[in-house]
Write a structure and sequence with these properties.
single chain; about 200 residues; alpha+beta; Lambda Exonuclease, Chain A; 6 helices; 8 strands; globular
Length: about 200
């Protein structure tokens, strides 16, 4: 793993992830069972477009994003207090020196853990508290983060101000990770071919 020390949401962060598949979008490559996603081709074009144009997609912030950055810090501190741990913030993580895919975790925990948090509207958070939070909802992102960082587990936290948080722990799914790694390699092969074919 290679860690880039930069601010998430900043220009350097957008440039670092431009044109490569990132864990938050791995669901556009495979579904939770490892089958190819119907969104794969569109995502290929998005990544290729960023490389050829030199312009990262969505490299701007708005009111909702600014609000989320504030809530993310609050959520992280809540998690640290509950678990008596320190969450180390990082900018962007590449799988290896090839820098062909990566992730932007909300934090690293100790030697083995990842932390991810999702800000939820009150009614959504209450539904998760009452009925549970399906592990398939962010499965590809979480397992992708574990692949990139080579960590053993990830705590996913649902956070809504004023409510108790909900924490779901994911362990590594080695079978899925193996399939994901293969699909990422094939995705990047197709990505390089598209860039070569259509670049001016």
């Amino acid at each position: 793993m290679i860690i880039l020390d930069c601010k998430q949401g900043g220009d350097e962060w957008y440039q670092a992830r431009a044109g490569i598949p990132t864990a938050s979008s791995f669901s556009k490559i495979v579904d939770s069972k490892g089958n190819r996603s119907k969104q794969r081709e569109k995502y290929l074009f998005e990544c290729a477009g960023e490389v050829v144009s030199g312009e990262p997609k969505n490299s701007y912030t708005n009111g909702n994003m600014d609000r989320w950055h504030e809530r993310e810090d609050e959520s992280r501190k809540t998690y640290e207090f509950i678990n008596s741990v320190e969450v180390i913030q990082v900018g962007f993580c590449y799988f290896d020196e090839k820098k062909e895919f990566g992730c932007s975790p909300d934090g690293l925990v100790g030697e083995d853990g990842l932390f991810e948090t999702k800000d939820a509207a009150p009614h959504i958070h209450l539904d998760r508290l009452e009925n549970g939070w399906p592990k398939t909802e962010h499965f590809q992102q979480i397992q992708g983060g574990l692949l990139v960082t080579n960590r053993k587990w990830c705590d996913l936290q649902s956070f809504s101000r004023g409510f108790k948080p909900l924490i779901v722990r994911f362990e590594r799914d080695e079978d899925f990770i193996k399939l994901l790694k293969i699909e990422l390699r094939l995705f990047n092969d197709d990505l390089k071919a598209i860039i070569k074919k259509y670049s001016a």
